[in-house]
User: What shape does this take?
Amino acid sequence: MGYSHFLETPAEPLVNVARCAVSVTGAVLGGVDYLCAAAYDEALRTPSDDASALALRTMQVVGIEHGVALTVDALDGSTKMTELDALVEDGIREGLTRIEEAGGAVACIANGVALGMLSDHRGTRESQLATGRRTFVGENAYSVPELRSLFRGSSAPAPDAQPVEDALIERIVAHKATTRGAVEELLLAVELAASGDANLVPPTIDALLAGASVEQIVTATAAGFTKAEKR
Amino acid sequence: MNPRVVLAKVGLDGHDVGILLLAKRLMESGFEVVYLGKRNRPVDVASAVLQEDAIAAGISSLSGGAALLACKTIEAFKAAGIEDVPLVVGGIAERDEVQAMLDAGVERFCGPHVPLDEVVDTFVAIAARAPA
Assistant: This one.
């Protein structure tokens, strides 16, 4: 499973398509079995329809047109890949040793060591870009501001958020009105299971199939857990 | 006492790398940061600002609606009687939306092209003019 993100520029959005293609190719060569590719305008807005469609087309081209996906583990035997594997493995072992020395995984979550480890390299890419150690075409390399209009694409401004929010609320209210009768008892079954030792999965699936919302499932589960705690 | 700021992700957006990075840099710059995490409502931000006696607040949304949430946060500040706590907004917004949130009273909008140092400097400037 992967998400093909990459350095994304809002200044020359269409150039992000090339970055996306490289990222998708890397994911495919790495053996990804589920992939979501970022749209070219994600640095600007919630993706436009054309940008979303182009992200899908990018995955289709990489996946189908050139045979990249026809060989299992196509980079097997590559000296560079072996070197990178060793680098990643060493980093993982180092991290696991730090966790072990700090009292184990649970202790590290409780005492903030795990959070600290996550923060250790936060901002690395940003500082690499600022110092020029990482190249970003059109930004810190080959920057030609007067040509940026060539790379704008046809991404359009996102719709105003308030009508979108209002429409979503209206839709969920209408949905709940039509499913109320069907889900009430099923939600009670979820709550009952959560309040005891019963398997929560079957009643949850039943409620979802009848149209219960995630919020209704969570509320029913929380109510059951609360009852269990009070006992 | 170190100046205290409240940072929060608002709405349903979960992109928190930027705001966590900002929190880290603000702490390194002498601020005390109260980070509320993801999926906060504007009223939650206002409550935290009051409870923590913060000199500024920063909110972030990258999945659309940054301006709407910013304007609602300003409204929540007003409803809570908060008049002198600047709100800095980070994320992605259209040009018209940026103007709308600035008109509503947002101190500054920091889009993708604003360097982190500039965002930190914004909070430093707010701290410098905040009453002791």
Observations:
- The beta strands of chain B are 4-9, 32-35, 56-61, 87-91, 108-110.
